[in-house]
Structures are given as C-alpha cells and as structure tokens.
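Internal QA ticket QA-208
Title: Verify multi-chain structure generation after dependency bump
Assignee: T.L.

Test input:
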Amino acid sequence: MPQPATDAPRYAAPGLADVEAAAARIAGHVVRTPLLASPALTELCGQPVHLKLETRQPVGAFKLRGAVNALLALDEDARKRGLVTASTGNHGRALAYAAREAGVPATVCMSALVPANKVEAVRALGAEVRIVGRSQDDAQAEVERLVAERGLTAIPPFDHPDVVAGQGTIGLELVDDLPGLALILVPLSGGGLAGGVALAVKARRSDVRVVGVSMEHGAAMAASLKAGRPVDVVEEETLADSLGGGIGLANRITFPLCRDLLDEVVLLSEDEIAAGIAHAANVEGEVVEGAGAVGIAALLAGKVRPSGPTAVIVSGRNIDDAVHRRIVNGEVA
Ligand SMILES: *Cc1c(COP(=O)(O)O)cnc(C)c1O
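Actual output:
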C-alpha cells in the first residue's frame, strides 16, 4: 500500500454525529438494505441470527455508502473538478457509480496489470480509466499527481472520515432493526466498515460486541492490531480478495478506531471461507463473494459463539462466476 504524501490532509476522527449526518445525506441515494433472519444459522447457534444484505446495493457492496457520503460532502467547485481513486475493486466501482448518479466526473487510476474485466467494470459505470505503470504504487502516484495538478479530490477506500461515517450507517440500521442486538460480525480489511459500524453502534449501545473477521493470510489490520501499530503484510491470494491490501503505514483513522472499539478479530482458513460462500448460496440463496461471506463462515466454523441476537454483515456479492460455481459445487477453488 503506497504511503500518502507527508503533506496529506489531517483528518479529525468521525463521531456518532458524523454517522447520523451521513445517514441523512445518503438516504435516497443508497439502498436501506434488508436484515433477514437465517433459520439455519439460528438453529446452529441457538440464538437469533440475521443477515444484513449489503449485496443488495446497486454496485453489489456496502462501499456505495462511504463513496456517496464523501461525494455529497463536497462543495460545488470540488464536484465540478471531479473525483479520483486508485481502487480497482468495490470502492472504485462504488465511486464511479456515485459520481455518475451525481453527474460528477470520476477518474480511476489503475496499473497495466489490472485484469481487463475489472477495467471494463469501472469503465461501464462511466468513469474515466487511466492506465499507468505496473503497480498499485504507480496508480496511487498518478492519483496524487491529478490532485496536485488538476485539483481533483481523492477519495480513498477507507481511511477518510466521510467514508468511515458512510459505512457506519449500517450500524445505525442494525441497532434500529434488531431488538436486543448483542453481537455483530463484520468483514475486516482496511477497517472503514468495522470502524464505522463499531463507532456508531457503541455510541448508541455500548454493550454490543463487534467482532472483525479476516482471512488467515495477508490480513493487514489483524497484523497491525497485534503489533500495536500499522504494519505491512505480504499479500497472498485469497477467496476473500476484497479483504486484501494494506492499511497504510500512515493510517490516521481506521487503525485507532479498530484498536479501541473492536472486541475481537478472528481469522479464517480458505476452506472455512469457501464453506461460507457455499452456505450463502445453497442454504440462504444469496450469491456472496468471499469477503462478504466471512461472518457466516466464522459462525459455521464455531470461531464466534453468539450469546444473543446476532447480525452478520454480508458485505458484497462481486465474485467471479466460475470461481463461485466451483465453490458452490463443492470443488474448493
Ligand atoms: C472493502 C470490502 C470489505 C472491507 O472493508 P474495509 O472498510 O476495507 O475493512 C469487506 N467486504 C467487501 C465486499 C468489500 O468490498
């Protein structure tokens, strides 16, 4: 993960009021997603288990919340100049979608190594794609150049107060929709989702447990929490590909939030993640990507034991069709 320039903006950490403002701002622009009971997981766990289906967002992932909130927080001049990011995954798609809906130009910088289908997915959403260099660092350097030279606004995927506040709106919906809420399972990568949700939920209901879930290999936030400071990890291939990538050695917001507010982080093997994807499809009837299935997988693996009403954030559905088919058919990828 490239490091921000030393003159990177200083952000104040977001609070509950920011999440509440985000909820008002994004209403009508994102889906207020359903929270559905899972009879099978309820039976398995002996406690009511519900699935928060962020798979139902128009881009197939919760990242639309943070992207829309960050965009709508900008003034007219900044909107006219446009947005830029280096994300090729769900954040890039969400930003492109949000920008198109608002009539704002968006640029997504990618290295020449990004697969054609990812380039096309972003282009199809109306964003300008700039192919530069051969690494994510090169793409990020181009973002910084466009910010400096053209006044574009960079919206990063997690370490930004408006992005965190946008993701945190899920937490407000959970507190409102699930009486007696005791436990939330949250997929964890850069920590925008987990940090935002924990911030919102604990401000309203300090007794709710919030547990982050990552893969065993290459989980940068888990390694950083263990080390007590942001650290880099070696990236490894994983079924939970949306959970890959670093948290930034100069992380300002999400590392402290996760350190202070997460009750626990659990790590899953690739087989456990595959079982989560297969259960989502075969039992719950939902197409879910690896990152989106880790909460379900943690319950199936017995790595988290609910002691009361439980919400599992099912964060996204963007998985390669062929990979999904293989997993659902029981041929682990
Ligand atoms: C980005 C993403 C996550 C992780 O969110 P962070 O804010 O980076 O922790 C989880 N699931 C999906 C589907 C994602 O796209």
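Spot checks passed. The pocket of pyridoxal-5'-phosphate is lined by residues 61, 63, 89-90, 158, 187-194, 242-243, 289, 291-292, 315-316 (CB under 6 Å).
Status: verified.
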